[in-house]
Amino acid sequence: MARVASFLIRLTTSAAIVPPSLLASGICLEQKKVEAPKPAEAKAPATDIQQFCANNAAIMGDAKIGWQTSRLVVLEEQIRQRLAELEAKKAEYAEWLRKREDAMRQAAESVVAIYARMRPDAAALQIAAMDDAAAAAILAKLSSRNAGAILNEMEAGRAARLTRTMSGPDAAPDRKRS
User: Fold this and answer.
1) Contact 132, 105 (CB under 8 A)
2) Contacts for 16 with CB less than 8 Å, ≥ 6 apart
3) What is the CA radius of gyration of the chain?
4) How confident is the model at residue 27 (pLDDT cuts 50, 70, 90)?
5) What is the pTM of this model?
6) Mean pLDDT computed over 6-32
7) What tens digit of pLDDT does each residue of 147-163 get?
């Protein structure tokens, strides 16, 4: 319906004749009159300032583009320098992290060696005071004989939690067995 109405409006503006049957049906509600084109009006003479701006608009546009291009080159160089600095920092942090992990590995090995040489009752008291993750990590690195002796000296509930933690994420937590 909208297409027919727009078609009829275009038709009526160009032909200026609408059949009476369409007027009676209400499809074409108003008839637009075609206006004759107006003769070109004479433009007012441009002032000196307007004439100057019109004559130099292309030159000013080119200058602006040149300035923007040089600014982009400067910004691109600054970005490259910043990226180089960030890459250097990344390499520095990677080296620091590697050294830290080596130190932690050596410290962990020495801590495990200390617990391996301790009496089981003394080691059990020390490990019982630790959080589950750290205690399970130490017990996992000990020989099974030493770990068993230490777990034997601990409270049964705590020893069961540590054993569950050492066995991995597949172990069901807090399930009662009959």
Assistant:
1) no
2) 31, 33, 34
3) 44
4) very low
5) 0.41
6) 49
7) 999 999 999 999 999 99
Residue 66: C-alpha distances to residues 33, 60, 71 (Å): 51, 10, 9
Minimal CA–CA distance to 26: which of 57, 4, 52? 4
Residue from 156, 95, 91, 163 nearest 132 by CA: 163
Query: How far apart are the C-alpha atoms of 53 and 47, rounded to whole Å?
Result: 10
CA distance 77 to 65: 18
* Pairwise CA distance, residues 140 & 135, whole Å: 9
Three-state secondary structure readout of the chain: CHHHHHHHHHHHHHHCCCCHHHHHHCCCCCCCCCCCCCCCCCCCCCCHHHHHHHHHHHHHHHHHHHHHHHHHHHHHHHHHHHHHHHHHHHHHHHHHHHHHHHHHHHHHHHHHHHHHHCCHHHHHHHHHCCCHHHHHHHHHHCCHHHHHHHHHHCCHHHHHHHHHHHHCCCCCCCCCCC
Mean pLDDT (the chain) is 77
* Residue-range domain boundaries for the chain: 118-167
